[in-house]
Automatic annotation (TrEMBL):
Entry-linked InterPro entries: Pyridox_Oxase_FMN-dep, Pyridox_Oxase_N, Split_barrel_FMN-bd
Gene3D superfamilies documented for this protein: Electron Transport, Fmn-binding Protein, Chain A
NCBIfam families: PPOX_FMN_DR2398 (TIGR04025)
Record's protein name: Pyridoxamine 5'-phosphate oxidase N-terminal domain-containing protein
Organism this protein belongs to: Martelella radicis
Domain Pyridoxamine 5'-phosphate oxidase N-terminal: 37-158
Length: 216
């Protein structure tokens, strides 16, 4: 695949030039941003089993991490503060290290079947308060830490992206069997996946078994 090169004459690197391409923000879109949770935002968070966490390191590199648990897993501590449990993962700790270096975070809350989403921007800290962690236990296992977010901005995001993508429409669901397994993808990208089909099936089965015992 040939390397894509941006023609400088088509590059947009000035905010004034950018905004000239679009109509001005107006109406409710200009007014909808809140500085704290209201009843609607709180209810949305209590229903959400999934969010995306955006962070940025000290070197400016951005990262987005998925976070999921039973609906309502994010605790609303007060109108300006949320707590997100950190469940077992791959121990890369990308998001957590980024938060230490740069506490600014962005959250996108998603509810299955809802086309609209909730966005929150703020600053985060990593907290090991035993009482807070115990309140976030699942199956008797408390998280090692919580990501506590102080809220700066809260606003609902419209349904256009989800409508365009048909994300929740079963008619547009794709067959997962038509794509390589996660184990095969990672092995192909690293040490190389085995050619033996039975061995690959065993590796995939081992991953599924680990999912059953390592979620919490």
């Amino acid at each position: 695949m040939a390397t894509y090169q941006i023609d400088p004459k088509y590059l947009i690197d000035d905010d004034e030039v950018l905004r000239a391409l679009y109509a001005p923000v107006g109406g409710l879109a200009a007014k909808k941003c809140l500085s704290a949770l209201d009843d609607h935002a709180t209810a949305f968070i209590e229903r959400a089993p999934f969010l995306c966490l955006g962070t940025q390191g000290s070197d400016g590199r951005a990262d987005v991490s998925p976070r999921g648990d039973p609906a309502g897993f994010v605790k609303v501590l007060d109108a300006n503060t949320l707590a997100i449990p950190d469940r077992p993962g791959n121990n890369r700790l990308d998001s957590l290290s980024n938060i230490i270096a740069n506490p600014s975070v962005g959250l996108l809350f998603i509810i299955p079947g809802f086309d609209d989403t909730l966005r929150i921007n703020g600053t985060a800290q990593l907290v090991r308060d035993p009482e807070l962690l115990e309140s976030m236990s699942v199956k008797g296992r408390a998280p090692k830490l919580a990501i506590v977010v102080s809220i700066d901005e809260v606003f609902m995001h419209c349904a256009k992206a989800f409508r365009r993508s048909h994300l929740w429409d079963p008619a547009h669901f794709q067959d997962r069997a038509g794509f390589p397994s996660l184990s095969k993808i990672i092995l192909d990208q690293t040490t190389g996946a085995p050619d033996d089909e039975d061995e690959m099936k065993r590796i995939d089965a081992d991953l599924e078994d680990r999912y059953k015992t390592s979620l919490y």
